[in-house]
Amino acid sequence: MTSNTHDLSCHTGAPSAARRWTADCLRAHLGDRPAVPDLIEDAVLCVSELVTNAVHAGCTSLRVELSFKDDGVRVGVVDDAPGRPALRSAGASERSGRGLRLVEAVSRRWGVDVVERGKLVWAEFATS
């Protein structure tokens, strides 16, 4: 298993920086196989949502992690913001509350683990 990590500041520019870094790492590691562009799009969407959630929740530390296995990729966001993310059912007029539903829809599976400095919210994607 290979892993890459990237520490970010907890500010409104973090999601954009996380998207760029994630896409670059995935392209470098996965190459140009036919399914790679869709996987990158889905993984970048998830990272963006998870980083946005951490920033909105008031994190003071933030790290994006990518783990590569033979059959898949795991993206994760470690943050120290209070609370745990939970699926919501946002109404049509609400401006937020759909992020984890998107993560659930495009990933093979997702979850939350308690870690030493907060929580790790992760999503997994198949590469084959």
List the helices and strands and how they pair.
Elements: E1 2-8, H1 14-30, H2 36-56, E2 62-69, E3 72-79, H3 99-106, E4 109-115, E5 118-126
Antiparallel strand pairs: 1-2, 2-3, 3-5, 4-5
Helix pairs in contact: 1-2, 2-3
Describe the structure.
With 128 residues, this protein is an alpha+beta fold. It has a single domain (2-126), classed as Histidine kinase-like ATPase, C-terminal domain (Heat Shock Protein 90, 2-Layer Sandwich), CATH 3.30.565. The chain is built from three helices and five strands; from the N terminus they run βααββαββ. It has helices spanning 14-30, 36-56, 99-106; strands at 2-8, 62-69, 72-79, 109-115, 118-126. The chain has a five-stranded antiparallel β-sheet with strand order 1-2-3-5-4, covered by helices on one side. Strand 2 (62-69) and strand 3 form a beta hairpin. Helix 2 (36-56) runs antiparallel to helix 3. The protein is globular.
CATH class: Alpha Beta
- Tell me what portion of residues adopts beta-strand conformation: 25-35%
Low-confidence stretches: none
* End-to-end C-alpha gap: 16 Å
Which sequence of strands runs across the widest sheet? 1-2-3-5-4
Structural classification: alpha+beta
Shape: globular
Sheet having the most strands: 5 strands, antiparallel
Number of domains as seen in the coordinates: 1
